[in-house]
TrEMBL record:
<dbReference type="GO" id="GO:0005739">
    <property type="term" value="C:mitochondrion"/>
</dbReference>
<protein>
    <recommendedName>
        <fullName>LYR motif-containing protein 5</fullName>
    </recommendedName>
</protein>
<dbReference type="InterPro" id="IPR045296">
    <property type="entry name" value="Complex1_LYR_ETFRF1_LYRM5"/>
</dbReference>
<dbReference type="GO" id="GO:0090324">
    <property type="term" value="P:negative regulation of oxidative phosphorylation"/>
</dbReference>
<dbReference type="Pfam" id="PF13233">
    <property type="entry name" value="Complex1_LYR_2"/>
</dbReference>
<comment type="similarity">
    <text>Belongs to the complex I LYR family.</text>
</comment>
<dbReference type="InterPro" id="IPR052000">
    <property type="entry name" value="ETFRF1"/>
</dbReference>
<dbReference type="GO" id="GO:0022904">
    <property type="term" value="P:respiratory electron transport chain"/>
</dbReference>
């Protein structure tokens, strides 16, 4: 991993681990897959490619947040607005 981006990569990894706590299939599966992806790309040394991967990771974080918010919205809607 390129040293200038090390801190950004570690922050991304920690953020994704934190967000994986509520993953529908379970935290252990999420953690194993996340570790596998980060390990696979750990030897990348091209700074531009590392930066591209970090941007993609940030996009994934936003997508996970959107999924969690949608789940929360649907739960609240189901509780307060019964279709019967």
């Amino acid at each position: 991993m390129a040293q200038p981006h090390r801190k950004a990569v570690l922050n991304l990894y920690k953020t994704l681990l934190y967000m994986g706590r509520d993953w529908p299939q379970g935290y252990d599966l999420f953690r194993k897959r996340l570790h596998k992806v980060f390990s696979k790309n750990s030897e990348e040394s091209d700074p531009n490619k590392v930066l591209t991967m970090i941007k993609h990771g940030d996009f994934v974080v936003k997508e996970i947040e959107a999924l969690y918010k949608l789940k929360k919205y649907r739960t609240i809607k189901r509780r307060y607005y019964d279709d019967n």
